[in-house]
């Protein structure tokens, strides 16, 4: 408990001291705990104060009040155990204007605590002094915000130069080198990532890859396969910057994997039969559009039927309880698919899917139309029609936007690698088909077939682009 008593030098009051430092850099700049303690002790000697306790927050930010020593100080003030608190500066107590004024007006003053600062004048004795103290709190927050702005600006420049941001959130396949400021691949994890990428492109799911490779979770597996860090990029504030670190994956392989990921729909349907069949995940009903599934039938055989026949699947898109599609023996449908796909493998050119108009083609056509429209408007304006001036400005602005979109589209990676991958898989199909098991056949089919449409026993195979 703080109090006052007589001393040979006069009346002396007991006090407590509050210290805070958040970083090693502050200590190097002269604001360390030792420096604060020295100045507080000198101040107390000159002002007849004796320090009875020290409240120290070492390594805590001043932007909030989540600090153990500060909370102990507030608790002791509320119990009226203290009479005087001394701090190095007001920003040591808090860098938040709201928190600083709250502590003075809602903690110290109501509990009769005299708050003093060695290097700042803090007083509520008059309106002018009160205003000055509040301005000091404002400047403490301004200093904090300015410091944050500098840090963010410095971080952006660092990232632009290809250096890693530092900190504890290091990507799975790397360790952070403080000396060089870059990420360094961990050899064994790099090897795991490369194996995982090969499996994913071969048709394995994230869950299956996790179990085979030994990643901690499906989330880690997905992060490894999708993070741009693994192709030498650094994501920062929603943008990507070229990093100085060694990439894990070849960029073309990475882009192919991302394209394949887009085409693989995560089915939320649950099937009683968990055995991986030849056409699992590929069959669609040609009558209602729902997915079709395998159903175990008599003597261990299977039939393929539409999900619309299952009352428990009413939440699925295209569900139609009146679907008239027939149940078909799985082996009959599989035989048709095998025969057809092997024919395609032997004669690729006649089965090549028709290319749809690309986004670039559509934008180019739109640009040509707008240019033609602009020429007509110019002609009208030349004839003295001033009413078209606003339309000319709008059309010119639209043309500029279209040109920008075309430039961005031209920069975006095409799917040539993906098409080449599909083409190679179809081409080699006839050579390997008889030598691989049903599970691997299903994986290959998923890389080359978009859908198999089934209508009353008849099939239509829709291939992916190649």
UniProtKB/TrEMBL annotation:
Keyword DNA-binding among record annotations: yes
Coiled-coil intervals: 360-412
Keywords attached to this entry: Coiled coil, DNA integration, DNA recombination, DNA-binding
UniProt GO MF annotations: DNA binding; DNA strand exchange activity
Recombinase domain ranges (all copies): 171-267
Keyword Coiled coil found: yes
Residue ranges annotated for the Resolvase/invertase-type recombinase catalytic domain, each copy included: 14-162
Name of one Pfam family that matches: Resolvase
SMART domains attached to this UniProt entry: Resolvase
GO biological process, one term: DNA integration
SUPFAM superfamilies from the UniProt entry: Resolvase-like
Catalytic machinery residues: 22 (o-(5'-phospho-dna)-serine intermediate)
Annotated PANTHER family: DNA RECOMBINASE-RELATED, DNA-INVERTASE FROM LAMBDOID PROPHAGE
Protein name per UniProt: Recombinase family protein
Species in which this protein is naturally found: Blautia obeum
């Amino acid at each position: 408990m703080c109090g006052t008593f007589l001393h040979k030098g006069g009346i002396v009051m007991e006090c407590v001291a509050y210290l805070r430092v958040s970083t090693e850099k502050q200590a190097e700049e002269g604001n360390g705990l030792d420096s604060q303690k020295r100045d507080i002790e000198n101040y107390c000697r000159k002002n007849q104060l004796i320090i009875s306790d020290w409240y120290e927050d070492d390594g805590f930010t001043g932007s909030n009040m989540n600090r153990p020593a500060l909370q102990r100080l507030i608790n002791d003030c509320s119990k009226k155990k203290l009479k005087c608190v001394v701090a190095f500066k007001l920003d040591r107590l808090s860098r938040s204007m709201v928190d600083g004024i709250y502590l003075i007006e809602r903690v110290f003053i109501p509990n009769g605590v005299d708050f003093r600062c060695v290097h700042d004048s803090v007083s509520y004795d008059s309106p002018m002094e009160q205003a000055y103290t509040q301005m000091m709190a404002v400047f403490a927050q301004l200093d904090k915000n300015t410091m944050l702005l500098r840090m963010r600006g410095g971080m952006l420049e660092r990232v632009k130069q290809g250096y890693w941001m530092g900190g504890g959130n290091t990507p799975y396949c790397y360790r952070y080198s403080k000396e060089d400021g870059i990420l360094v691949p961990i050899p064994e994890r790099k090897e795991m990532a490369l194996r995982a990428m090969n499996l994913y492109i071969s048709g394995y799911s994230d869950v299956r890859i996790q179990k085979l490779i030994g990643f901690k979770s499906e989330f880690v597996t997905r992060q490894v396969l999708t993070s741009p860090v693994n192709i030498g990029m650094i994501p920062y504030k929603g943008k990507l910057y070229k990093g100085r670190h060694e990439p894990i994956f070849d960029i073309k392989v990475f882009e192919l994997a991302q394209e394949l990921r887009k085409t693989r729909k995560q089915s939320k349907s649950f099937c009683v039969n968990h055995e991986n069949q030849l056409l699992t995940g590929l069959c669609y009903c040609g009558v209602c559009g729902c997915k079709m599934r395998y159903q175990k039938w008599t003597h261990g055989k299977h039939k393929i039927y539409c999900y619309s026949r299952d009352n428990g699947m009413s939440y699925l898109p295209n569900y139609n309880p009146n679907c008239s599609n027939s149940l078909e023996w799985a082996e009959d449908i599989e035989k048709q698919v095998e025969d057809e796909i092997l024919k395609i493998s032997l004669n690729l050119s006649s089965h090549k899917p028709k290319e749809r108009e690309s986004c670039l083609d559509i934008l180019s056509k739109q640009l040509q139309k707008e240019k033609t429209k602009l020429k007509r408007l110019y002609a009208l304006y030349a004839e003295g029609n001033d009413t078209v001036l606003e339309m000319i400005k709008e059309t010119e602005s639209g043309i500029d936007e279209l040109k920008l979109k075309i430039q961005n589209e031209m920069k975006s990676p095409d799917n040539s690698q993906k098409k080449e991958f599909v083409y190679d898989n179809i081409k080699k199909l006839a050579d390997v088909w008889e030598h691989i098991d049903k599970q691997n056949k299903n994986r290959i089919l998923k890389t080359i077939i978009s859908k198999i449409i089934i209508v009353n026993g008849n099939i239509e195979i829709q291939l992916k682009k190649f």
